[in-house]
UniProtKB/TrEMBL annotation:
SUPFAM superfamilies in UniProt: Acyl-CoA dehydrogenase C-terminal domain-like (SSF47203), Acyl-CoA dehydrogenase NM domain-like (SSF56645)
Organism domain of life: Bacteria
Annotated Gene Ontology cellular component terms: cytoplasm
Single GO MF descriptor: oxidoreductase activity, acting on paired donors, with incorporation or reduction of molecular oxygen, reduced flavin or flavoprotein as one donor, and incorporation of one atom of oxygen
GO BP term (any one): fatty acid beta-oxidation using acyl-CoA dehydrogenase
Domain Acyl-CoA dehydrogenase C-terminal intervals: 236-370
UniProt entry keywords in alphabetical sequence: Oxidoreductase
Protein name according to UniProt: Acyl-CoA dehydrogenase C-terminal domain-containing protein
Amino acid sequence: MSIGTGTADTALAAARRRLEPVFERIAATALEHETSGTRPHAETATLAAAGFGALRIPVADGGAGLGVEEFFELLVDLAAADSNQPQIWRNHIAFVEDRLAGRTDRDGEWRRRIGAGAVIGGAWSELGTTSILGDTRIERVDGRLLLNGVKYYSTGSIYADWVGVLALAEDGAARLVLVDARADGVDLVDDWNGFGQRATGSGTTRLRDVLVAEEHVLDFTDRFVSQEAVYQLVLLAALAGIARTVRDEAVQAVTARSRSYPHGLSERPRDDAQVQQVIGRIAAHAFVAEAAVGRAARVLDSVWEEIGAGGEPTVAARAAAIAVYEAQIGVTDAALAASTLVFDALGSSGVGRPLALDRHWRNARTITSHNPRIYKERVIGDVRLNAADPLSIYTVPSADSTAANTEASA
């Protein structure tokens, strides 16, 4: 569903023309960031300036008004340039969907902020706790609202203007507290130590007596009904982008080779039927991954169509959850397989550090570890066999909740 004026195709074409040069610049520096350990601050800022963060914001609020399917098509393109980028924007993307679903004045204010270029990070999870809320609190002290706590998996926050912090209020309810990323008492630490997706900024956020404005405190329960599906689909878009880039780099590497193995089937590797078979399999994995993301995005779009028609979105949200979960299994398998198969098409030069082809498997493995597929496989089986409700596997967190999705913002 396109939000705003004009057709979805027209809006998508305009957005693509504006963003393609930015994506090309991101792709040109991604390998350097990977090998040097530097962070894509300039590239992320350029994306924001080009309106990437406002693609789903209505035209009336300063955005491009893209629908879900169109947006995720561009997100896969971005992931092909640098798989870190979709994850950097993941909390922002989910926050936008929540504000689109909201009907309050505060929701409108945040839509307009984002339409003007604001970028939102996130800080939900805490290490060593069974509850997603953990020990982070927002309390009134001498008439002022103060936020205190320590969060981890603060993905994208080092690049953001605002950080959405999940905290427990004095009334025991969950609140999403928006704090200026540069405010006094906010310490964003880039200490994520995973072996993949190393530029996502998924590290620690320390909050010490951070002064919070009343209007920047939102009810955590006021969220888009398919928020979790959005979070997961962003990761799947990143995996689809990885599979596409593996395909392209495999083709480039094989084409550049002039020497074959003594027991090869041709003098040139590109003419070797076995090598061709490997490239064919990689290409098929890339196709399947992108197709699955596109299909899941279309089903997710139907939730917005139901909302736009004034209907009850629960049935559509269940269908979207199932579609995303099933896509997760297929896309996970495809990305991991493609990023391993690439080495079968190459000689020992394929493991050279300058190529850094190992980054694709490391990044794919890191992404797939965020929400392990084994749990979604079980959920899908329960849904198909017993008509279980796929929306019931997550609950709204409270102080003693142990069933919340603690990896939503990772």
